[in-house]
Amino acid sequence: MFQQHPQELTMQRTTRLALALAALGFSAMAHAQITVPIHSVASSDGNRSLGSVTITETPGGLQFTPALQGLPPGQRGFHVHMNASCGEGPVNGKPAPAGAAGGHLDPHGTNAHKGPNQGGHMGDLPALEVDSSGAALKPVVAPQLKKLADVKGRSLMIHAGGDNYADAPAPLGGGGARIACGVIGEPAAK
Question: What pTM does this model have?
Answer without folding.
Answer: 0.79
